[in-house]
Amino acid sequence: MGSVFQDQDAAAPQIAIVGGGIVGVILALGLVRQNMSVRVYEQAAGFREVGAGIAFSACARRCMKLMNPAIVEALRRCGAVSVSDADDEDDYLRWIDGYNQHRADDPTYQKPLAQIGSAGFRGCRRDQFLEELAKDVPAEVISFGKRLEALEEREDGKVLLTFVDGTKAEADAVIGCDGVKSRVRRHLFGPTHESSHAQYTHKVAYRGLVAMDKAIQVLGEWKANNFHHHVGPGAHLTHYPVANHKMLNVVVFLSDPNPWSGSDQSSMVAEGTRAEVEAALGGWHPTVLSLVRLLPDKLVTWGLFDLGEFPAPTYTAGRVCLAGDAAHASSPHHGAGACLGVEDALCLSVLLGKVRETAASPGGNLDAALRAAFQTFDTLRRPRTQWLVNSSRRVCDLYHQSEWADPKRWVKAGTCFEEIRDRSYKIWHFDADDMVRRAVSMYKRKIIG
Ligand code: FAD
Question: What structural domains does the chain harbor?
Answer without folding.
Answer: 14-448 (3.50.50.60)
